[in-house]
Amino acid sequence: MNNTNRTGTPPVLPSMPALDAAMEAALAHKPEPPIPADFAARVAAAAVAQPARRGLPARSAGWITAWASLIVAALALFILAPHTTVSVTNYRFDAEILLLAQAAAIAWGISRGFGARFTR
Asked: Residue 86: inside a domain, yes or no?
């Protein structure tokens, strides 16, 4: 149905008393769905048959090792930091850069969850 009224008001539809009465009767009727007598027993039996959800995944040796390595790398960075001067020939600076790279790689691995087995 095209609206040729360009004033922005909706078109006025003709009143249909029979349709209005049928719609009001349909809306006023509250349906009563039939519920079987053994419905609650069937729901309870189905609920027991479902397996229990697992909690958090078990921590693997790799996960524990990664966190321990990250802590050791962070501690080594704090120990080396006061003695480091920015120079490529300074082995402490080189060790600090290497430890930063290792810590970043370990943190990235931890954040990725070590593969798809931790994702759901």
From this structure: yes
Can you tell me the distance from the alpha carbon of 91 to that of 98, in angstroms, rounded to the nearest whole number? 10
Summarised one tens digit per residue, pLDDT across range 1-40 is: 555 656 667 666 667 788 888 888 888 888 888 888 999 8
Both tokens of residue 11? 């078109």
Question: How far are the Cα atoms of 77, 93, 118 from residue 82, in angstroms, in the given order?
Answer: 9, 11, 39
Q: Which residues form the domain of 91? A: 69-114
Is residue 93 situated within a structural domain?
yes
What total number of domains does the chain contain? 1
How many separate helices (H) and strands (E) can be counted in the chain? 4, 0
Half-sphere CA count of 91, side-chain side, radius 13 A: 0
**Interatomic CA distance for residues 113 and 39, integer angstroms:** 43
Answer yes or no: pTM beyond 0.85. no
**How many whole angstroms separate alpha carbon 26 and alpha carbon 40?**
30
Per-residue model confidence as pLDDT tens digits over 44-54: 888 776 677 77
Judge whether 87 lies within some domain.
yes
